[in-house]
Amino acid sequence: MQSQIVLILLIAAIETITTAVYGRTCFNKNVTESSQFTLASGEVMTIERFTCDNHPALASPDPPSGLQKRQSSACSQSNCVCGIPCLFLDCNAPTRTIQASHCTALAQQLEDMSGPFTIPANEGLGFILQSCEYTAFGSLTQSTQYCFHDMGVAALEIFSVCGTQQGACQGQNNAGFFVDQIAL
């Protein structure tokens, strides 16, 4: 009996460490909505809402109640993480080639945009420019509001450390959101 408890705790610890180090992993990505915007440069940015078929242990945890309600002039709902820093987690080898100019242009575009966007509960939101995608994951149980500017800052910080590798950051104090830089 004791050995079973130890084994269960060990598996849970490994899954927790994997989530903390690599952000949220998306298996069997299913795009539910897609729209395109032409940037001032003439390039086209795609925004996708998607779901993942994940084991719950690999999903991002819900935010602690102390950080769940963030006061900000940009926020229009109670579960808003605008203003909460996204802390760097790790870099990983890309699954495909990422071109640096795509990531920096996309990150800069996000940083220059004003206002918030909403990530539906247990879904992801991806911002795509050619070979580079930045995704945001929020709460498993409720929609999460995040600011475009903060998303751009997180993207630039990940890129400054990882370059053309894949990378991730997580909301400070486990604030219930992840931002990932991935290859398409």
UniProtKB/TrEMBL annotation:
<protein>
    <recommendedName>
        <fullName>Cyanovirin-N domain-containing protein</fullName>
    </recommendedName>
</protein>
<feature type="signal peptide">
    <location>
        <begin position="1"/>
        <end position="20"/>
    </location>
</feature>
<keyword id="KW-0732">Signal</keyword>
